[in-house]
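I hope you will forgive my troubling you with a question about protein structure. The full record is reproduced below for your convenience:

——
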Amino acid sequence: MFPEPDRTPYDLNFRLFGFPVRVHPLFWLVAALLGASALDDGLAYLAVWVAVVFVSILVHELGHAVAFRRFGSDAHIVLWAFGGLAVPRSGVAGRGRRVLVALAGPAAGFVLCGLVYASDRVGDWGATNGPLVYELYFQLVFVNLYWGVFNLLPVFPLDGGQVSKELCEGRWRGRGLRVALQVSVGVAAAVAAYGVVCFLDSKSDRSFLGFLPWWFPRGSLWTALLFGMLAAQNYQLLQHLGRGYHYEAPDDRVSWEK
């Protein structure tokens, strides 16, 4: 649903652990827009936010790329407006393997989150080196934990949506994609509505979401826009299937899965 963007003269290109990495210029713009509120505290806070987003998404996509390589397909990484892509040279055979590839991205982010949290528990560096360092610590934990959780929702093209597709096709061959899309539309619409409610609550003098625990992720207008767009795209795909398009999931399981 989000194809690899065209190359531009302003791309940043480098290699990491043997994987080619390309950063599209829109990545920096969208990351800055997402963290625009940080400018209230100064330009340095915005720079910290953009750096955290860059490292976090790069680690996430690196998790996918390593999993692709483990299952015999090298990959390259692209960071752009909608986050990132790990693009393999060839497909991965085996439903179980594809599920592991999808889960490898969030898992890498959770590992980074755990390392940052554990290092602070041992060295107490987050809260003792000034507000800017604490912002770095907090955002590394927040982005890798909560974005990882959101990314596991069964919504295309998120990693959770890829897992949902594989599981549904394994359970309902021939109509598994339809079932996965129906789940995707419902969940995306619900999250978009929650984002709207959270946005209105933040503008209200009296919160009506006070019953939620402090650790429960809050939505925002960005959440509503992103998941509303995903709900619309998935609904269009579902309508496409309803107009007579037939999809037969291939039985490409590896030998021990059959």
User: Anything to note?
Assistant: Residues 154-251 form one domain. Strands lie at 12-16, 19-23, 75-80, 83-88. The longest strand covers residues 75-80.
